[in-house]
Amino acid sequence: MNSITSIRHSLRFTVVVNCLVVTWVACIIATITLELEREYWKTGLVSQYQDLAMTHISNEFGLLKSSTERLLENESLQRFVQSQEQRKSTFAISEQFLKSSLASSIIVQDRMGRITHLDSEMNASFIKAFRELHEPDQQMIFSSSSKLGIDFVDGRIFMFASVSVLDEHQRRPVGLVTVLQEVNADMLKRMSKSIGRSFSFHYTAAGMRLTQVSYDQGYHVAVDKVIQEQGTGFRAEYRVTMADGRVQPANFVITFDARSYDFIDPRYVLLGLVFGIPIVSLLLWIVFSRKVVKPVSHLIDYITDESTYAREQDDKLSMEELPEEMKLIYSRFKKVYINMARQNQFSQVLVGAIGDIIITVDKDGQICYANPAAREWFGVEDKLLIGQPLELFTSNINHETPDVATWLYTCNVKKKRLMCRAELVNIISKTYIYPSDVIVQPIDSEVSAEDVSTSVVVIRVKDTVPVSEYMVS
């Protein structure tokens, strides 16, 4: 019964340990999976919005170029560029254009690249900066072809579109008109709305605060870095590299908020694992205990505990606790048990009926069992025999054959069978000498308990000789 209880405790402990290990492993896997999913989502989102941002930036350049081309449709401006005349009317046209559009400045250049008109509300330092960026050096050949690009002036960013002005025959360029639009808060707000995310620029080169990049020869956009913001949001910075290898001194930045899941937040799934696995394990253990452990425990009680078996004979309802499979095992065992009980009873009757003296002893030579013939021969009650040394009750006075100690040593230590003749004396009465045949047989046993029989001694008394006659002879 104790072994069954120990097994139940071991099973319960195993279930608890396995539950904790499975919960721990599941939480680690779920956490790693969640992190991988977040990183994969970030990577996909950053790549998607990179293309989307460049599409909208290209649209802004397209709108700026269209505005410049519409400005050139004015004949007064055309004549001014071609002949450098009618300055007042040109000023009025540019002022009217600036008011009706989002442009920040208008630059007019002749065929040599000299700025003949710069209409801007900027201060003198900015006007000087625009001249440095758009007027060519004396050693450089000015190209009056149309172009797109960005001016970076002292922390401010200006997108520009330049369109060539052709002569009256529309054959060769005679000047260049450039419209600049500052990337200000209104423009960033408009861009953010069109993209669906917060859009801005971030200066990356403090030493290049006065420079110009051209988008005409192509460019390459790549993710520069992804920065985790406070909380759950993050921002991605995109670096623009020109065809000639120059890097734009300001990255454009898109800020992302944490995505709200459409169906269920995986963190709730993780929380469910933490509580769900122990609950499921507990329910499975209850079912397993009721359906398997408890019936097996009862079955072993029926099989191993005679009192339980006896109670079961009187209480038929106890068998209802077993499932059908266990009942079948029990019914088969019951037949074997009955047969074994009958066989054991028969063996007990047979041993009791035999006239030979049969004694079993343990490894220390102490008597474990004595049949009725032995008890009658010794003249001692059974309770006084059991647990006493065999040498206390009999001795072999024939010195030519092994004595009692030799019998036990041969069987218990050497594990050999011994057969001999002996002339035994009952030490208690010392009245008769009993010539006898003795067989001492070792008993194979893997049990190491103190009270387990290790040898059986069979004594067949051949004759009874009074001590006085034996001494005379």
Give an overview in words.
It is rod-shaped and about 170 Å long. The strands form 3 sheets. Strands 11, 12, 13, 14, 15, 16 and 17 form a 7-stranded antiparallel beta sheet that branches. It has a 6-stranded antiparallel beta sheet with strand order 2-1-5-4-3-7, with helices on both faces. Helix 1 packs antiparallel against helix 6, helix 6 packs across helix 7 and helix 6 packs parallel to helix 8. Helices cover 47% and strands 25% of the residues. The two termini are 61 Å apart. The chain is built from 12 helices and 17 strands. Strand 1 and strand 2 form a beta hairpin. The protein is α+β, with helices and mostly antiparallel strands.
Concise account of the structure shown:
This protein has 473 residues and is of the alpha+beta class.
**Tally of helical runs:** 12
**What would you call the shape?**
rod-shaped
How many beta strands in the DSSP annotation? 17
What is the first-to-last residue Cα distance? 61 Å
Strand content: 15-25%
Query: Mind describing the biggest β-sheet?
Result: 7 strands, antiparallel
- Low-pLDDT segments: none
Report the helical percentage.
Answer: 40-55%
Q: What is the alpha-carbon Rg in Å?
A: 56 Å
Mean pLDDT: 79
Order of helices and strands: HHHEEHEEEHEEEEEHHHEEHHEHEEEEH
